[in-house]
Amino acid sequence: MSGLALDDAAWASAWRPRAVGDKLLLTLGLVLCALVLPVWPGSLLVGLTAVALALGPARVPGRVFARAVRLPLAFVVIGALTAVVQVSGAGIGWAPGAAGTGGALVGHALAGGAAVMLLATTTPVSDLLPALRRARVPAAVVEVASVTYRLLFVLLDSLRTIREAQAARLGHTSVRRGLRSSGLLAAAVLTRSWDRARRLQEGLAGRGMTTDLRVLPEVLPSSRSFVVATVVGLGALSALTLVLA
């Protein structure tokens, strides 16, 4: 894979030709179920549904999906620890109802995160941004997201180039050299990325670019059967959760 693994997975996904609105309906429905349904068994069912849809019909590689969930999982665990640990005059201890609070927080967050990752691994950003414009999201928000997305590739390209140059000069043959090379890598990448971003801005300004950069979006037709299946599936998931709870 080159560039962003999530973006590569989204372009290769079997659900990429589906309309963005259909996938947004499914994702928002799963996120809403993860928030309002009881953590047991609601969050478990939502998470399993999102993972099953990603690895099954959408044909997202399991390794990519697992790597995408790994970093959000770390934030969820850290957030759960801050919610269940309390500091008092007696020292550090567990907060009242720590197990229930921590379990509910982790369950809701993981289920909602899995649903969002389903959208991220099946919908390229270049498809999502025009959909946000059609949904009347403020143009400034869409433009900031668009520029940030483009600059990510500038950052990755600089990182790859400098890293290869350091490896060719044996910059990572020892721990001391590795630490020194990592520091130089961070400084060089930030400096080069800032310079390239500035030159990009100056080039657009020199061409009279005073508005957002518009492109011709690809028209992806909505599927009535997919929408009906989504609504029925979300209703069945909610009913099963309430019955089991």
TrEMBL record:
Its main location: membrane. It is found in: Cell membrane. The keyword Cell membrane applies. Coiled coil: none annotated. The keyword Transmembrane applies. Keywords: Cell membrane, Membrane, Transmembrane, Transmembrane helix. It is a multi-pass membrane protein. It comes from the Bacteria. The chain crosses the membrane at residues 24-56, 68-92, 104-125, 226-244. This is Cobalt ECF transporter T component CbiQ. It comes from Klenkia sesuvii.
